[in-house]
């Protein structure tokens, strides 16, 4: 339940949640993602930058010259500068930019294996490298539009939301699309009061649990231009969005909106909220990828385990060329580590 209303504290440094300094390092798994994309080359780059994680994939897909060592379990130690690899053999090689349908099932298996390790307690969180949804659908009949929905299924059908969070702009931006991977023409029907309410509740709970924000301020975007202009440009805002937000405010949620989406992402506007719940994918993702493509992190809210991911995709156009930027996956590792710390702190507080 949200806390009662009161003066809005503006969190000083809320880019990532705080992590107590004296813990055992969280055991993070990085899944290989689509081997024909940039995933396999990001892992050694992140390791060279000092990140501590276990890579789950086929070592034959790593760039030649990668210094790696096989481990038996997530978190097993390896020498400094060495990539810890939990081996998962694939049937085929990685051909940059050309996904092999024969590898599709193994890409999916790697995600499921990482989740099983997290759910068994053998790992503290997972960081997923990008997948190509079409390649998985064509190669293995993957029935999910992305990790988000697949992870929710693996976790037992829990309700989830996709958040993208900046790490290198101030004020920060966190966005949650209330509808995700569907055609734009399907959005007005899919954006129901129940869907928007679920996204708001998951966002509020996620900011508390994973970002250690005790009284989250959430801005809600309208669906239509100018948030409907009082009904002149669409009626969703007046007919049901505003009444829904009023009802949730009465429960204690700190909400603003429905707001015109075109004017809610500039810096002074961002300073007024901790996360923006948006009507559809591009309304949410265009601002964050424009403001912080290098530092953006994709977080799945609502899962029983921590999952983050870079904000970018498989980047087939540059795969294998040695020019991929690892900043976003490094930010994803750091955010996952901080989220593990935030959850551990909350558990400790609850038991003391
Ligand atoms: N979490 C995931 O698994 C995600 C998967 N995807 C998938 O990725 C595939 C490709 O999607 P696109 O829309 O083309 O987006 P993309 O992010 O793969 O590429 C967009 C542009 O950004 C560049 N780029 C991306 N990441 C980069 C990096 N780390 N360093 C340097 N340049 C980088 C690419 O070269 C390309 O020019 C699609 O199949 C999509 O579904 C997209 C986003 C997330
Ligand atoms: N556009 C964001 C995206 O595709 C990420 O999807 P997911 O694989 O994390 O569900």
TrEMBL record:
Its EC number is 1.1.1.262. Keywords: Cobalt, Cytoplasm, Magnesium, Metal-binding, NAD, NADP, Oxidoreductase, Pyridoxine biosynthesis, Zinc. Pathway: Cofactor biosynthesis; pyridoxine 5'-phosphate biosynthesis; pyridoxine 5'-phosphate from D-erythrose 4-phosphate: step 4/5. Residues 1-25 are annotated as: Disordered. InterPro entries: PdxA, PdxA_fam. It catalyses: 4-(phosphooxy)-L-threonine + NAD(+) = 3-amino-2-oxopropyl phosphate + CO2 + NADH. GO terms for biological process: pyridoxal phosphate biosynthetic process; pyridoxine biosynthetic process. GO terms for molecular function: 4-hydroxythreonine-4-phosphate dehydrogenase activity; cobalt ion binding; magnesium ion binding; NAD binding; zinc ion binding. The keyword Chaperone does not apply. Binds 1 divalent metal cation per subunit. Can use ions such as Zn(2+), Mg(2+) or Co(2+). It is found in: Cytoplasm. GO terms for cellular component: cytoplasm. Its cofactor is Zn(2+); Mg(2+); Co(2+). A divalent metal cation binds at residues 181, 226, 281. Substrate binds at residues 147-148, 289, 298, 307. Belongs to the PdxA family. Homodimer. Catalyzes the NAD(P)-dependent oxidation of 4-(phosphooxy)-L-threonine (HTP) into 2-amino-3-oxo-4-(phosphooxy)butyric acid which spontaneously decarboxylates to form 3-amino-2-oxopropyl phosphate (AHAP). The active site is located at the dimer interface. This is 4-hydroxythreonine-4-phosphate dehydrogenase. It comes from Paracoccus suum. The gene is pdxA.
């Amino acid at each position: 339940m949200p806390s009662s209303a009161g003066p809005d504290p503006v969190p000083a440094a809320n880019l990532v949640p705080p992590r107590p300094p004296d813990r055992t390092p969280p055991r993070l798994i990085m899944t290989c993602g689509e081997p024909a994309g940039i995933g396999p080359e990001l892992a050694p780059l992140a390791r060279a930058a000092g990140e501590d994680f276990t890579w789950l994939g086929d070592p034959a897909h790593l760039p030649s010259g990668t210094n790696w060592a096989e481990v038996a379990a997530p978190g097993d130690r390896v020498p400094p500068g060495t990539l810890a690899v939990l081996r998962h053999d694939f049937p085929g090689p990685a051909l940059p930019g050309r996904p092999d349908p024969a590898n599709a099932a193994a890409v999916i298996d790697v995600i499921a294996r990482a989740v099983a390790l997290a759910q068994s307690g053998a790992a503290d969180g997972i960081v997923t490298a990008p997948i190509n949804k079409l390649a998985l659908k064509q190669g293995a009949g993957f029935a999910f539009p992305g990790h988000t929905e697949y992870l929710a299924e693996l976790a037992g059908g829990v309700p989830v939301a996709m958040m993208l969070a900046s790490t290198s702009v101030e004020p920060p931006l966190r966005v949650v699309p209330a509808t995700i991977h569907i055609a734009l023409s399907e959005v007005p029907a899919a954006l129901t009061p129940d869907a928007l309410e679920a996204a708001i509740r998951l966002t509020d709970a996620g900011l508390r649990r994973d970002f250690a924000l005790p009284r989250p301020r959430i801005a809600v975007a309208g669906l239509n231009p100018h948030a409907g202009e009082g009904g002149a440009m669409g009626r969703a805002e007046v007919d049901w969005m505003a009444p829904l937000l009023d009802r949730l405010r009465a429960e204690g949620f700190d909400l603003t909106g429905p707001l015109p989406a075109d004017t809610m992402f500039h810096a002074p506007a961002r300073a007024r909220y901790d996360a923006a719940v948006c009507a559809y994918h591009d309304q949410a993702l265009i601002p964050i990828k424009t403001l912080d493509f290098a530092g953006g992190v994709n977080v799945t809210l609502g899962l029983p385990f921590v999952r983050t991911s870079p904000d970018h995709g498989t980047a087939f156009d540059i795969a294998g060329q040695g020019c991929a930027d690892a900043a976003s996956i490094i930010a994803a590792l750091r955010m996952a580590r901080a989220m593990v710390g935030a959850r551990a702190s909350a558990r400790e507080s609850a038991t003391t």
